[in-house]
Amino acid sequence: MHTDSRGDSPETPVIPRLRGVLESIPTYKPGKPATAGDGPVTYKLSSNENPYPPLPGVMESVLGAAGSFNRYPDMACSGLMAELAERFDVPATHLATGTGSVGVAQQLIQATAGPGDEVVYAWRSFEAYPIITRISGAASVQVPLTGGETHDLDAMADAVTDRTRLVFVCNPNNPTGTVVRRPELERFLDRVPSDVLVVLDEAYREFIRDEEVPDGIEIYRDRPNVCVLRTFSKAYGLAGLRVGFAVAHEPVAAALRKTAVPFGVSQLAQDAAVASLRSEEALLERVEALVGERARVSAALTAQGWTVPGSQANFVWLRLGERTAEFAAACERAGVVVRPFPGEGVRITIGETEANDLLLGVSEAFRKEL
Ligand SMILES: Cc1ncc(COP(=O)(O)O)c(C=O)c1O
Predict the structure, then answer these.
(1) Which family does it belong to (predicted)?
(2) 311-328, pLDDT tens digit by residue?
């Protein structure tokens, strides 16, 4: 009987050889969508999205680009790069784009770490970090958050070894919304060896109102091992178009261009990002409204008796432990979908006022039963 080179008979289905490491990698879990259909209206507070629809100018630029998507996009994202370079006063050679900032984060790991290497980050933090680290073959070193739900930067510096290739500092941290401030960040950066890349993930930068939190782009200027990640998905409201970028010194930015998926950022996304930067005033007004809602929701939760870590992002965190799933289910019954992390807590995006009110109704009733 004919056998193939692995000795399988034709009747035995041949399974392609996948990398063993995949077995230890969870699939990324997106925030649950709001339920569609004839039932009551539901609100999606599970993915830290901006609840506002695109601004008119942004919509027009996307519609303009839509007529030519039979063509590949501008691979160098030249228009967007020029706009960003001017906006942040950085050389265009210090910029790199990707399919959302998660795409850029993955490019960073591919550029720095592989089997035998380590990537250090706080935990809990952005759930893509363990996934993209394992995919590269590197190992994660997760440093627990402090009791106050903030990065423990001293412990993170202690966790850096000669195997460490990259450290993520998520500021504000997803899912807790907590921040690291200038003196502690500077002290940490002074301790990390200069050949280890420190990635300041600032996906929620525009929501920060605490003046003690440094702008990563100011920090990167005289620290060649610091890279800043930003995105158009959150404050700028372009989550569905997939565009994020990094600001880093030239060797890192050049490496990012090598590890990018060619043509990953569509022309629609590039044009929408440029239009968003040009409509910034209107966009940031909306961000201001969300910041106001964040203050209102946080104060109301605190008044109800919850411990709410101070959030500088567009979400708040409730540590519910074993009651997490129950709370998430109660929210869903009331028409709001939140993001549970089983056994730990829920992350609640600040959304439309009506959605925030529904959430506060649930949290009040739940609190009374505790
Ligand atoms: C901390 C953090 N970084 C990066 C991202 C990725 O966002 P995007 O890929 O849409 O830019 C997210 C999204 O939730 C996030 O929370």
Answers:
(1) Belongs to the class-II pyridoxal-phosphate-dependent aminotransferase family.
(2) 999 999 999 999 999 999
Taking residue 18's Cβ as centre, other Cβ atoms within 10 Å add up to 8
**Architecture of the domain spanning 28-52+280-369:** Alpha-Beta Complex (3.90)
Report yes or no: 270 and 278 within 8 Å, Cβ to Cβ.
Answer: no
Which atom of ligand 1 sits closest to the CA of residue 242?
10
- Best probe residue, ligand 1, of 107, 121, 231, 311 (max atoms within 8 Å of C-beta): 231
Report the atom number in ligand 1 closest to the C-alpha of 104. Answer: 9
Residue 157 CA, ligand 1 centroid: distance in Å = 24
28-52+280-369 and 58-279 in the same fold: no
Ligand 1 site, CB within 6 A = 48, 100-102, 126, 170, 174, 201, 203, 231, 233, 239, 244
58-279 CATH, one of 3.20.20.70, 3.30.70.1560, 3.40.50.300, 3.40.640.10:
3.40.640.10
For the chain, what are the domain ranges? 28-52+280-369, 58-279
**Cα–Cα distance for residue pair 263/267, rounded to 1 Å:** 9
Reply yes or no on whether the pLDDT at 195 is more than 60: yes
Among 49, 50, 101, 261, residue to substitute to test ligand 1 (most atoms within 8 Å of Cβ): 101
Q: What is the pLDDT of residue 15?
A: 86
- Best CA proximity match to 92, nearest among 82, 101, 100, 104: 82
> What is the pTM for the complete model shown?
0.94
Tell me the per-residue pLDDT of 91-143, one tens digit each, with 9 for 90 and over: 999 999 999 999 999 999 999 999 999 999 999 999 999 999 999 999 999 99
Q: What sign does the dihedral 305-309-312-314 (CA atoms) show?
A: negative
CA 203 to centroid of ligand 1, rounded, Å: 6
